[in-house]
Amino acid sequence: MITTIAQYFIEGRDLTFNNTLFKSSTRNLTKAGFTVEHTTGWLGPLNSLFKSGDLKKITHSHPNRDLLFKELTKDPIGHLIAQPSLIESLFYDDDMSFLCENGTKMFIPTGEVAENSLRDKFAAVGIPVRANYSSEEAGLIAAECKDCPENFHVAQSNVIVEVDNRDSVVVDGNRLGRVLVTHLHSYATPFIRYDIGDFATLSETCECGHDGQALSNICGRKNGLLSTQTGVFPGLDSACDESWKLSNVTNIALGKPH
Ligand SMILES: [Zn+2]
What we know:
The chain is α+β, with helices and mostly antiparallel strands. The chain has helices at about 1-10, 65-70, 85-90, 95-100, 115-125, 235-245; strands at about 20-25, 35-40, 55-60, 80, 105-110, 130-135, 140-145, 150-155, 160-170, 175-185, 195-205, 215-220. The protein starts with a helix and ends in a 15-residue tail after the last helix.
């Protein structure tokens, strides 16, 4: 948590905003199709050190739109953390002004890529979109640049990121290699050069002027989409479109050595 906060300070994110977090569920929930949990302060044990907003966790299956909107009017939304497909379905009429009027300060997409069409809708009401690139075991790997969308500043206090270009591929004129992550704080279980299953381009600086590594052109890899000796990745373009996503790593293993 503390390394995540450190990166948020670097990125200039405001910890005092509430977090409104959506989690999907396959279970049948209440008649309203969602449940709500409130937590005072979203920094856990660090709440005594830093002032933070509150956490509202909304677990949903098939939420009733009117009741959900009523719930969202009760507190300032702050950071809206949700799957882009959920937001698309809630705002099928393209009018995102409700979010603006109810205190949404930032949209943090999870689980899926936020397509440009959705980003444009947020831009129209002045709400920035800033994705986190993370995994369950390593936590925050990189945070989206506020000036250069889809470029991610590496969380260097938390991880070392390398890109293995031995099996690199070229997509849309950009050379992408495998993303290898070393977690700096996993003492019990080594998490070294873990192949996270994504491809990306790694730069030593960001175009915004940030003097630190940045990842761009991040593409998720579908299961079964395997490299060959010739470096041919059938269907990688469509894989990028359909399954580019923030990874949730579920297995720990040692990554390939260089
Ligand atoms: Zn940047």
